[in-house]
Amino acid sequence: MKLLLVTPRSTDKKPPIGLKIPQLALHILAALTPSDIDLTVIDEQMDEIDFEKHYDLAGISIMTANAPRGYRIAQKLKEKGTRVVFGGIHASVLPDEALKFGDAVVIGEAEGIWPKVIEDFKNRELKKIYRSEPFDLNHSPLPRRDLKLEPVILGYKWPGFFTTRGCPFSCEFCSVSDVFGRKVRHLPVAHVIRDIENADSKIFLNLDDNVVGNPGYARKLFEALAPLKIEWGGQSTIGIAKDEELLKLCYRAGCRGLFIGIESISTQGAARFQKTLKTFRENLDAVKKIQDAGILFHPSFVFGLDEDTVDIFEKTLDFLYKARITTATFNILTPYPGTRLYHRLKKEGRLITEDWEKYNHSTVVFRPKKMTVEELIKGYHFLKKEFYSLSNICKRIIRLSEISNPGLVQFFYAVFNNIAGRQITLESVPNNYKTFA
Which one-letter DSSP state was computed for residue 140? Predict the structure, then answer.
């Protein structure tokens, strides 16, 4: 039996530049696949599918933005007689849509059901729908680390690892808690350590939605990570700034950067989020505490909230300058299917398109409440062009020394992220709303 496992990229063309996030789903499914199966694993961020080869079965993991690409891959494979199973968060939310392009759909986490899918296929009893309950992470397999799927950034291999699933928050624009549950589940710390040791690297990306979601678990994890002398970046809520002891421990564990969703610097916008601080000054103070601890603060912002007016872009720039931020992520609000935001905007008749390829955080797919589509796009591109101007990039790189004990990883990440952000911004088309508005 020949099996192909694929994570599609979001477009038919391979992106020329950008931070490639490692995909652990393929490593885990590969670990659950019997050794007698002829297995090919492709992450399209790094490699191409050989459509000349024949595969008996293909598993394709899709998110919303890469779902159309995944469907096109499925059509090509099915023309050669390959059966196709879809999984991932988009297929879990819209299984009927995925079934139009595939033969079966796995809803939920695949660990508890993947061996059954393969067994049913071998017995010619493949079902259309497989539902998996939240998996007991105490029984999670070690990801396959021999597949060479890790992105290489500036000459360094950056494997991904995870420690938790689930999220206690219920943000209107996010489906994580709906798919993975609001109860936070943890891998045993010893399991995490074995996985990191198997990955044979000293630089990692932690893929948790919130690495300090459970402070007690986080302390045990950080204490176990510290002796490994690795460096890593991860995600957290800004609330970590309130726990000085945990911050210091996080740094000693090797954390050199945290991606933190500030989401909005306006008081009205921030009120929508349970996980953010509410005032400009609180956020400024939190940034300083985290960077004084030696950890690069990488904020993420969302534009197009119902409370946002055209002055939100200038206010955000003002915050970035006053907080002396080195790197940042800017997103246009994206109403992913399955979220409460999607259902609300659809009910209000404000969705412009359901072309999933445009659900990419940089295209306006809905009508904002307090500004026009054009104003949102122009403000978004104005902000990015200002932030990624050459003069501002140079100032930010020089200011890296303000972070306590800046390391090589922080320098590489800051340079790469700023260069990539500038190139992507310059290549983007600010009038893309005209194609479907």
Answer: P
Query: How does pLDDT run across 36-56, given as a tens digit for each residue?
Result: 999 999 999 888 999 999 999
Range of the domain at 320: 150-435
Which DSSP symbol is given to 243?
-
Highest mean pLDDT, choosing among 166-175, 279-288, 313-322, 404-413: 313-322
Whole-angstrom distance, CA of residue 162 vs CA of residue 28:
11
- Regarding whether 121 and 36 lie in a shared domain, the answer is yes
For residue 169, CA distances in Å to 181, 298, 344 come to 10, 20, 18
Q: What is the C-alpha radius of gyration for the chain, rounded to an integer number of angstroms? A: 22
Nearest to 413 by CA among 397, 433, 436, 432: 397
Strand runs labelled E in 90-246:
104-107, 129-131, 152-153, 156-157, 160-161, 164-165, 185-186, 203-206, 231-236
Residue range 133-147, pLDDT digits in tens = 888 899 999 999 988
| Tokens describing residue 282 | 């609180």
Question: 3: which residues sit within 8 A by CB, 6+ positions away?
Answer: 33, 37, 38, 39, 40, 55, 56, 57, 58, 59, 118
The CATH number covering residue 43 comes to 3.40.50.280
